[in-house]
Amino acid sequence: MSRQESCRSCGSRNLRQFLSLGETPLADALLPPEKLAEPEPAYPLEMAFCPDCTLVQVTENVPPQVLFVDNYLYFSSFSPSVLEHSREHALGLIEKRRLGPGSLVVEVASNDGYLLKNFAERGIPVLGIDPAPDQAAAAEAIGVPTLREFFGIEFAERLRAEGQRADVIIANNVMAHVPDLNGFVAGLRELVADDGVITVENPYVRDLIEHCEFDTVYHEHHCYFSCTAVDRLVRRHGLFLNDVEYFPWLHGGTLRWHIGPNAAQTARAQQYLADEAETGVTQAEYYESFAARVEGIRSELRRFIAELKAKGQRVAAYGAAAKGATLLNYSGLGTESIDFVVDRNPHKHGLLMPGAHIPIRPVEALLDEQPDVVLLLAWNFKDEIVRQQAEYLRRGGKLLLPVPEVSLLTFEQTRELLAAT
Ligand code: JHZ
Fold it and tell me: Exposed, middle or buried: residue 323 (CB in 10 Å: 0-12, 13-18, 19+)?
């Protein structure tokens, strides 16, 4: 482990810390019960702003092998809405870029093939790159060839030396995860064809701050991007920010940046850059009040749950998400407050939430046990979880949202969403 003293993008040594979430275990290091007696490593979790290139980042470095190979149980295919979003993205690219059997689509962090399968099914050559062994095996089982490696400049040079150039490179929820950000972007430039496109998706730092999504901060996420930070980063490597799309519902607010060797920029991209300068996203002052708002959520959540417990109510949680680990550990909530966490991913069942040590069970446990209140750790999937848990809600169950403010959702409040089921 090492501390990052200089900016991950521009190298400036003026980093300004604006949030400390204390020392937390790795958010995806779900614990087998038999390891409970062993010491559980915890690392400082601090956020800083770079006044020179505007990049928001965490200051602790955990080796990627520990984060994404040894402890990685995340499978992208567990959300129907993510699958649909990915399908639309693929079909849009196929049409717009006229992709066919002579094209090559590369995805960095291709996980279980959830996205590339849309190209492969239509006869378009694909290459997945992902170091997580179980996810790569799942991708290959559905016809998505996957190299089990980390992506960076050396890897891209190797592919290029073998004669590979990509017409499209897709990098969703991965640019934030790489410790060597410049090596990653240099690799994208090396691999993309001169008339190719790179699309990068990542949660938007502006949503993180404005909606107080502090739980999306964990060691896996080294960086939290604005358009300005992306623009400055890619220019350093002979790439340009061409266009920006916004998906407010995805992971608390996600941007898709279209990046390429060509300098053209849409009016929409220019507007994002102008708005960021105007609202102050590019200034240190914008981040200053964040820590106090985060602290406010912690005290309110603790107070709310303590009141429920005092009334004898049973509380469970939904989603053994990485963000759930940050929320529980920072808020100091453990087995005294929350009986169990449910999750759809069978790889997580039987394990314990890191730090909080709350057991993870299948989703069916909600109907079997009918807890009075369920804390929605995977709040980013609120709409689909409400529909999926219609029966739990009909029977009088309530969902508790932690962000942007602590609030209860009852059956009545979800009527509109449920009417669509
Ligand atoms: P979810 C992940 O964060 C990890 P996490 C990663 N590092 C990243 O960058 C962000 O996403 C963007 C489950 N679930 O996606 C699946 C249900 O049980 O919010 C997951 O375990 N039922 C790549 O871990 C968890 O909830 C459902 O209906 O914070 C959600 O995790 C659905 C939809 C999900 O990510």
Answer: buried
Mutate which of 84, 107, 247, 381 for ligand 1 pocket (most atoms within 8 A of beta carbon): 381
CA of 321 to the centre of ligand 1 (A): 5
288-336 pLDDT, tens digit per residue, is 999 999 999 999 999 999 999 999 999 999 999 999 999 999 999 999 9
Whole-angstrom distance between the N-terminal and C-terminal Cα of the chain? 47
Cβ neighbours of 44 (radius 10 Å): 15
Task: Kindly report, as residue ranges, where domains of CATH 3.40.50.150 are found in the chain.
Answer: 76-287
Whether the Cβ atoms of residue 325 and residue 343 lie closer than 8 Å to each other = no
What are the structure tokens assigned to 416, written together? 């509109």
The domain 296-419 having CATH identifier 3.40.50.720: the answer here is yes
Q: Where in the chain is the domain with CATH 3.40.50.720?
A: 296-419
Query: CATH fold of 76-287, please?
Result: Rossmann fold (3.40.50)
Take atom 15 of ligand 1 and give the residue whose Cα is closest: 321
The H or E element that residue 202 is part of is: strand 192-203
Dump pLDDT digits (tens) for 129-162.
Answer: 999 999 999 999 999 999 999 999 999 999 999 9
Any atom of ligand 1 within 6 Å of the Cβ of 374: no
Closest CA to 249 of 400, 410, 417: 417
The model's pTM: 0.95
State the CB neighbour count (10 A cutoff) for residue 127.
20
